[in-house]
Every structure is written in C-alpha cells, then in structure tokens.
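User: I'm writing a short methods note and want a consistent example. For TRAP transporter small permease protein, I'll paste the sequence; you return only the structure tokens, no commentary, since I'll be parsing the reply automatically.
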Amino acid sequence: MTRFGEAAIALSSGVDRICLFLAKSALVGMVCVVMLQVVSRYGLRQPPAWTEELARYLMVWGGLLGTTAAFRRATDPAVVRVDENARDRRAYFAKLAILVTAAIFVGPILYYSLFGAGMDPARSFIMRMSARSSPGLGVNLAVIAAAIPTVCVVILIHLVARIIGGPLITRNAEQK
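Assistant:
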C-alpha cells in the first residue's frame, strides 16, 4: 500500500473514533435530557422549555455522526453485499458503485451547504441558517446545520479509505 493509502486509512480511523465517541455522547445526552423532561413534566409538573429542542439537536448530530461510522464499516443498508477486499471483478465494480453513488449523493449536499447559486457562499444553507436562532435554546442554527456538511466531509474521507482498504473490520464482524 502506498503512503497516501496508509495516511488516508489512518485519517479515516482517527476521524471515525472521534465521530463514534461524539455519536455515543450525543445519544447518552439525548437520553438524559429526555429523562429530565419526563421527570420535570410528570413529577414536577413544570418541564423546562429547552429540553425537547436540545434532545432534537442531539438526535440530529448523533444520528448523522453514527451514519458515518456505519458507512465506514459497511454496515449501512445495502441491496447486495460484495466482499470489497476481494481482488476480482465483482469487488472492483462494487467499489466503483460505492464511489459513484456516494459522490453523487454527498457532492451536491456538500456544495449547497457551503455555496448557493453562482458559487455564492452568502446564499449557502449554512449562511441562511446563521441568520436564525432556535427559540428554546437561543443557539444559532448554523451550529445545528453544520452537522450536514461535517458529515459529508467525513463520509468523503471514509469513502477514500474504503476504496483503498475496504470497510473497517470490527471485533463483532470478525466473530461472525
């Protein structure tokens, strides 16, 4: 394997560890916030206004970051599973199909998240969200909307690593 391949796989592994930690943290945070909301609503009869909104934003970030981990491990939904690490024609076409479909899906989303019509960053999704804030938390919605381009960049990093080295093998996958 070339230096570029090793560097791409190492970068993908590091980013994957961070994303998985953040996804798990968001899930735990979401459960804690929902529990606080339930206890406050039914026990104290006075729920905080911000809990539902925070749980929603944690769900968005956690779900999208978890999606990147699933993509890296090839545990995302698929119609047909082909061994991407094999050295045959099917593996080549499987990697080609993954490359093309991921690029077609992620490319426009990333483009319109960062740029608007005519390559104008002022008309991008992030800039439009930066003019708004959430009613319950008062957080700039660009912080929440940043999940989308962040996940797109991470998926592109994982895509390069997956084309070069195949999906990440976990201990659970080895036991099967």
